[in-house]
């Protein structure tokens, strides 16, 4: 893949924004209802957990493997294939009759989703030029907007029209995404790479990327960011229920978080391009830690909303800078693998953080569990301070 020229950028970014939004929307449409859908098909609690986890189990390695593929063949064909696979998956959800069927479709969906994330992020990285912070802010907005819309629409559609309508709605949107992705310019293959890489070569490249200073900060931070988010979405509803609040209040707090996440990314991306990646990265991680430590000490909805707004701002400050670090410290021909690792760690963060912090909350108490969710962000903050000052 080559850096995109300026005239191409004006065409590519709006299309890629829409494709990214549609490519992630299906995932967030499913999060609020998948457990209930699996239960309705007769799945036990343990099987429900497995079905939900299968997406992350397959999506994490798929991001890495397909990232390498994108480096070899360019982003367009993998992106179209991933969106088509997601659309097929959403349609097949509507045909499931037993938990086993649902498990198979979740596996397919996780694999195809592993094509979309690295491909779209690679396009934004190639399009950023000298303003990679701003480009990655746009990318982050498209993802967080998908989160907000998906969580908001999912329950409403299922309550009024049923599960099948939700799955077909997702299929339609992803089909539109396929059509839009076909409008993107063709991407070139990685120069000089004709042979299929061996497993050893792939592992060597992964090790090299993980050990690169700027990328180490990005990878530690994105894992920490979504590890804590997994803890929050697991423990916050339980904490609020103890305070006498309902699912509506939980949804409102998550909406406040998502809105602030969206609107803070544009100024943060511009700041990142102006002052460098260190200040926003340290600021975002620090604000995230403070927010999580304060959160379980509050007992009224307005104060909880204020702190969740701060938590959303922390994410909005952090995401453009750590995403831009991936673009800053990679060559265009290795960005598929680099962005694949980024998305793999994002997915793994939620998948690992949710059960670990859920167990921690069960053993030590919900309040302490919420506060301790910030611990991994402290570690990421230490890595950022030690590393970014030297590069």
Please summarize what this structure is.
The protein is mostly helical and 391 residues long. It has helices at 6-30, 34-40, 45-73, 76-93, 99-127, 132-161, 163-182, 199-211, 213-242, 247-263, 265-275, 278-294, 301-328, 335-364, 366-372, 375-388.
Describe, in plain words, how this protein is organized in 3D.
Helix content is 83%, strand content 0%. With 391 residues, it is mainly α. Helix 1 packs antiparallel against helix 5 (99-127), helix 6 (132-161) packs antiparallel against helix 7 and helix 12 (278-294) runs antiparallel to helix 16. The chain starts with 5 loop residues before the first helix and ends with a helix. 52% of the residues are buried.
Descriptive labels:
mainly alpha, Growth Hormone, Chain: A, 0% strand, 391 residues
């Amino acid at each position: 893949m080559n850096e995109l020229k300026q005239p191409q950028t004006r065409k590519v970014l709006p299309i890629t924004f829409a494709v990214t939004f549609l490519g992630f929307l299906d995932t967030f449409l499913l999060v609020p209802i998948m457990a209930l859908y699996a239960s309705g098909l007769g799945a036990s609690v343990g099987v429900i957990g497995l079905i939900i986890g299968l997406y992350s189990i397959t999506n994490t390695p798929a991001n890495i493997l397909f990232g390498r593929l994108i480096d070899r063949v360019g982003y367009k064909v993998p992106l179209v294939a991933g969106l088509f696979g997601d659309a097929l998956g959403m349609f097949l959800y509507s045909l499931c009759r037993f938990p086993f069927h649902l498990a198979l479709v979740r596996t397919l969906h996780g694999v195809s989703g592993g094509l979309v994330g690295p491909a779209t992020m690679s396009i934004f990285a190639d399009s950023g030029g000298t303003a990679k912070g701003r480009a990655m802010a746009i990318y982050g907005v498209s993802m967080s907007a998908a989160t907000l819309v998906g969580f908001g629409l999912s329950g409403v559609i299922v309550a009024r029209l049923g599960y099948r309508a939700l799955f077909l709605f997702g299929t339609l949107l992803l089909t539109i995404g396929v059509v839009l992705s076909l409008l993107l310019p063709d991407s070139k293959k990685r120069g000089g790479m004709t042979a299929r890489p061996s497993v050893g070569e792939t592992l060597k490249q992964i090790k090299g990327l993980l050990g690169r200073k700027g990328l180490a900060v990005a990878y530690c931070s994105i894992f920490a960011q979504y590890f804590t988010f997994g803890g929050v979405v697991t423990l916050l509803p339980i904490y609020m229920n103890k305070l006498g609040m309902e699912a509506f209040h939980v949804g409102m707090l998550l909406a406040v978080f998502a809105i602030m996440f969206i609107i803070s990314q544009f100024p943060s991306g511009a700041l990142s391009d102006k002052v460098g990646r260190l200040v926003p990265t340290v600021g975002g991680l620090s604000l995230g830690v403070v927010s999580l430590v304060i959160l379980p000490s509050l007992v009224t909805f307005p104060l909880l909303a204020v702190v969740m707004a701060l938590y959303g701002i922390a994410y909005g400050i952090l995401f453009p800078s750590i995403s831009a670090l991936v673009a800053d410290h990679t060559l265009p021909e290795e960005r598929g693998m680099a962005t694949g690792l980024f998305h793999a760690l994002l997915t793994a963060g939620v998948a690992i953080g949710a059960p670990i912090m859920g167990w921690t909350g069960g053993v030590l108490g919900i309040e302490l569990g919420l506060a301790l969710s910030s611990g991994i962000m402290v570690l990421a903050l230490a890595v950022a301070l030690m590393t970014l000052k030297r590069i």
